[in-house]
């Protein structure tokens, strides 16, 4: 069982990276990873050595994330300080690279959840299509289709600017 715990521990940096990309909120991402780790440890008896621990952990994280989204839809969202007008200090000299990164991050957040999940697993976490499809419980063809749509939409959003961000469905 200690080998399982060691493998779970090795997954933490990738889980944090994926959670941050999904939530776009470092605190919420850390909570998501912690909840996922707690669930994995509590349910470690359900893990079967026939698959990879990494895939199992990503599946747990994704399930916890989706459950949280369902719960949030039923309750009002708290106001973020970042949404208050005038939150950015005037006159900051922002580098073009940071602007492009921020634009890409906004565009990724505007993608439909199904496309964002696929894009993050394949492009950011560099998972093979089969592993990502197994985590998401979808056929590889569906994964490839969602990935193509996500890349196309992301390309359109980042090439034409932010006004289109609101029109993504």
TrEMBL record:
Gene Ontology molecular function: DNA binding; sigma factor activity
RNA polymerase sigma factor 70 region 4 type domain residues: 105-154
Gene Ontology biological-process entries: DNA-templated transcription initiation
Keyword terms: Sigma factor, Transcription, Transcription regulation
One Pfam assignment: PhyR_sigma2
Residue ranges of every copy of the PhyR sigma2 domain listed in the record: 8-61
CDD domains tied to this protein: Sigma70_r4
Classification via InterPro entries: PhyR_sigma2, RNA_pol_sigma-70-like, RNA_pol_sigma-70_dom, RNA_pol_sigma70_r4_t2, RNA_pol_sigma_r2, RNA_pol_sigma_r3/r4-like, WH-like_DNA-bd_sf
Family as reported in the entry's similarity comment: Belongs to the sigma-70 factor family. ECF subfamily.
PANTHER family: RNA POLYMERASE ECF-TYPE SIGMA FACTO (PTHR43133), RNA POLYMERASE SIGMA FACTOR RFAY-RELATED (PTHR43133:SF25)
Protein name, as recorded: Sigma-70 family RNA polymerase sigma factor
């Amino acid at each position: 069982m200690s080998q399982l715990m060691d493998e779970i521990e090795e997954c933490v940096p990738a889980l944090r990276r994926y959670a941050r990309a999904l939530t776009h909120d470092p605190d919420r991402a850390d909570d998501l990873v912690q909840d996922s780790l707690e669930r994995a440890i509590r349910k470690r008896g359900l893990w079967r050595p026939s698959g990879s621990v990494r895939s199992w952990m990503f599946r747990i994280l994704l399930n916890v994330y989706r459950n949280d989204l369902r719960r949030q839809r039923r309750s009002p969202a708290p106001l973020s300080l970042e949404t208050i007008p005038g939150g950015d200090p005037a006159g900051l000299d922002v580098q073009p690279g940071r602007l492009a990164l921020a634009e890409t991050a906004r565009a990724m957040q505007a993608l439909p959840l199904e496309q964002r999940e696929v894009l993050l697993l394949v492009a950011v976490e560099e998972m093979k299509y089969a592993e990502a499809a197994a985590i998401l419980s979808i056929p590889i063809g569906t994964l490839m289709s969602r990935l193509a749509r996500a890349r196309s939409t992301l390309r359109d959003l980042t090439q034409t600017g932010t006004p289109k961000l609101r029109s993504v469905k």
